């Protein structure tokens, strides 16, 4: 393993940046008791999007459509469309279509959407079309999970990622088999909502946490009165709301803007073994341990630093902790970590001597197995 620029791994380009960012966050982030809006911590049960899906045809392509010999479903779709339009083809007719592509159309129906509203849609080729650029999506019904039609889509497909360079001599071409149509679908059916029924609503925390749920209940009861909120479990909180749509909406607006101090998140380390990216939160700590891995050696010591005031200065003696990191690459040495050392310092030290993502992964797994890594290790 070398320290040269040619020997730097992907870890040196990604983990170092992420760890420096983590250090800046630790220096400038607000305290652990920083309040967040309730709308950022929880959502209202029943207020959600619904996915829509449809199958359609894109026509008008400039010879970049599906090859009909390999995509028979495109020909079947065209024949069915012509029959529905009153055009009957003679038996045995072989269609050679080059300007048609079979596509899947996807979108999301937002909460409280009403008939007549428009949605943005994504059009994706499902055959072997080379490009959807310049094509037009024919009228396509969009269905929900219950197989009911909730929207109708149609329009000109816009494919991004195609453009000439500044000099005009080069053309940059990206993914051409997916396009979008802004306001390309019209809502035809509304989804029934249970929000206006009864005198209670349920809040669902984004992350299950009993401490945060308890703090939310305390904050709501303090703001709106005792017994307004009650926690059902670590995620769901039942809240009594006033009757009447106008009063209910005003109550929910005030509820979403309520400030809550969330509990500290569980310690977690996430590592991408392919890119070497390492992300950790501020709750990660280490216990004393010893890890031997090849010729990697990092010794981290924490020494007290005593600052003594001058004579007659009426000052106080201050004792601080200063971390010193020694980096060696001599074979046979051991990685020594003392209790309380930050994992970010360890990763930065390993990165500085050119450790690969595989090396870092092996060390973190060993530390976790030994019980020295006080965090959940997630590898993606």
UniProtKB/TrEMBL annotation:
- Top-level taxon of the source organism: Bacteria
The entry's localization annotation reads: Bacterial flagellum basal body
- Carries keyword Signal? yes
Say if the entry is tagged with keyword Signal: yes
**Which keywords does the record carry?**
Bacterial flagellum, Cell projection, Cilium, Flagellum, Signal
Q: What is the similarity comment for this entry?
A: Belongs to the FlgI family.
- Subunit structure, as described in the record: The basal body constitutes a major portion of the flagellar organelle and consists of four rings (L,P,S, and M) mounted on a central rod.
PANTHER family assigned to the protein according to its UniProt record, in alphabetical order = FLAGELLAR P-RING PERIPLASMIC PROTEIN FLGI, FLAGELLAR P-RING PROTEIN
Under which name does UniProt file this protein? Flagellar P-ring protein
State the gene name recorded for this protein: flgI
